[in-house]
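User: I'm writing a short report section on ligand binding and want a predicted complex to refer to. Could you take this sequence and 2-acetamido-2-deoxy-beta-D-glucopyranose and write out the structure as tokens? A short remark afterwards would be nice.
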Amino acid sequence: MATTTSCWILFYLVVASFGEYCMASQIGLGSRLLAREDRAWMSDNGTFAFGFTPEDGRDDQFQIAVWFAELPGDRITVWTARDSRPVTNNAILELDTTGNLVLIDGDTTVWMSNTSGASVQYAVMSETGNFILYDIEKYTAWQSFSHPSDTLLPNQPLTVSLELTTSKSASHGGYYSLKMLQQPTSLSLALTYNLPESYVNLPESYANYSYWQGPDISNVTGDVVAVLDEAGSFGIVYGESLDGAVYVYKNDGDEKGLSAASNRSTRLAVLRRLTLETNGNIRLYRWDDDINGSRQWVPEWAAVSNPCDIAGICGRRR
Ligand SMILES: *[C@@H]1O[C@H](CO)[C@@H](O)[C@H](O)[C@H]1NC(C)=O
Ligand SMILES: *[C@@H]1O[C@H](CO)[C@@H](O)[C@H](O)[C@H]1NC(C)=O
Ligand SMILES: *[C@@H]1O[C@H](CO)[C@@H](O)[C@H](O)[C@H]1NC(C)=O
Ligand SMILES: *[C@@H]1O[C@H](CO)[C@@H](O)[C@H](O)[C@H]1NC(C)=O
Ligand SMILES: *[C@@H]1O[C@H](CO)[C@@H](O)[C@H](O)[C@H]1NC(C)=O
Ligand SMILES: *[C@@H]1O[C@H](CO)[C@@H](O)[C@H](O)[C@H]1NC(C)=O
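Assistant: Sure. The structure tokens for the complex follow:
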């Protein structure tokens, strides 16, 4: 704890003395993190960190992740590399000189961003929780927001090609997902239980099972994106300029509305997250920094109010 504190003091001293010229958040080519060191790449105001985090509280297995860096209590990760396996404390994460972000464990390349040919110049852990690789023209070559795991942060677009997923169950390989479900002339957001791969040859009645669906959207042209806005509303925006909106959950205090959601890089006034939990429910949380001293995640909304409606819970077949 003392080390962490002095580290922070040092960080602020550095920031203060470099003033405007401080590039604290720009991660240059050749930068690396080691799993055995307790160091991470921080966002400008310290809200988010990117680095190695212990897997399920173990001290010999790590994964790369983005997490809320300044909140007390259990570490809440908002992104992990889904297609990576856990690594040992010998692992190295490097933004190599070709601009590829690579996770290496011993002799094995476990995961990479595949951005070697994309003219990446530097990386940034943004204040919105997005870890971004920028190219020479300052365009985004790769971003964690486009590879979500189980959490959606405010202004993070969930397009029709993306999904939130829980980890696969260690015992049977099934998992839950939140994605846009396409029907012939409409689509809706749905929570689905995805059967283990070993089930694919079973009879048709064993299909992946959607146990919750948001409102339908019919015959729209243009983009369709699910988004959580800064005021805590969640829903789908659509149309050529994303000006149509269907709410799955509307927060009372939301005046500007869903279609005002945008990808900005400054700190949000209130921290929120929409998390697909391992039990198959999706829940919206707000960080409560109440003046009375209550500092905790407060649930604001959940898709399923009766847990027995979720596939696989309460002994039902699906
Ligand atoms: C990089 O490419 C490999 C091989 O095509 C693929 O398996 C992997 O998912 C890609 N990584 C990312 C982060 O997209
Ligand atoms: C169920 O979902 C998994 C993962 O998305 C997919 O591979 C499989 O084909 C699906 N099975 C059926 C019957 O739709
Ligand atoms: C959507 O388009 C189809 C085919 O063009 C049409 O049959 C259907 O009535 C439309 N649905 C709505 C809700 O407008
Ligand atoms: C986010 O910003 C990028 C580049 O500035 C833009 O191409 C993209 O459409 C934006 N996404 C949303 C949801 O606004
Ligand atoms: C960091 O915090 C300061 C003070 O709250 C704020 O003015 C600034 O916009 C923040 N920077 C970012 C990148 O969010
Ligand atoms: C703080 O606590 C008092 C007394 O319990 C309560 O009246 C007040 O609304 C609380 N303030 C906030 C911001 O919750």
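A remark for your report: Helices lie at 2-18. Residues 157, 262-263 surround 2-acetamido-2-deoxy-beta-D-glucopyranose (ligand 4) (CB under 6 Å).
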